[in-house]
C-alpha cells in the first residue's frame, strides 16, 4: 500500500510562485506514476500533472503547461509541483495520488493542500 501526503499550499498574489510537495511512503516499488490533481471551490477534482516514478516522464493539463513543472526526487520519495505565474483560477485544494500501472485509477489520495491566489 502507498500513502501520500501533500504540503506547501499557501495564499499568494497573482503572478507569484509556490512549490507543493507530495511525500510518498509504503510500497514505492509498486508505483507506476504519481499525479497532482486539484479541486477548485464548488467544482470537481481535475488532473493537473503526472510523472512516471521510474523514468520521470511527465504530462500536463493544457491549463498549466508552461507554468507548472512536476519533478520527482526518488531518494527522498517526494514529488514536487513548482507553480509559477499563478492565476486566481489556480485557486484550489491540490491532491496527489499514485497508481500501479497506466490503466488503473489513481489511489492513495492525501488530505490535500490549499492554494489561494488573489488578484
Structure characterization notes:
The protein is mostly beta strands and 119 residues long. It contains no helices and ten strands. It has strands at residues 2-7, 11-13, 18-26, 33-39, 46-52, 58-60, 68-73, 78-83, 92-99, 113-118. The protein has a six-stranded mixed sheet, with no helix packed on it. A four-stranded antiparallel sheet has the order 1-3-8-7, with no helix packed on it. A hairpin with a 6-residue loop joins strand 4 (33-39) and strand 5 (46-52). The chain is globular. The protein starts with a strand and ends with a strand. The model has no long low-confidence stretch (mean pLDDT 95).
Topology (elements, then pairings):
Elements: E1 2-7, E2 11-13, E3 18-26, E4 33-39, E5 46-52, E6 58-60, E7 68-73, E8 78-83, E9 92-99, E10 113-118
Parallel strand pairs: 2-10
Antiparallel strand pairs: 1-3, 3-8, 4-5, 4-9, 5-6, 7-8, 9-10
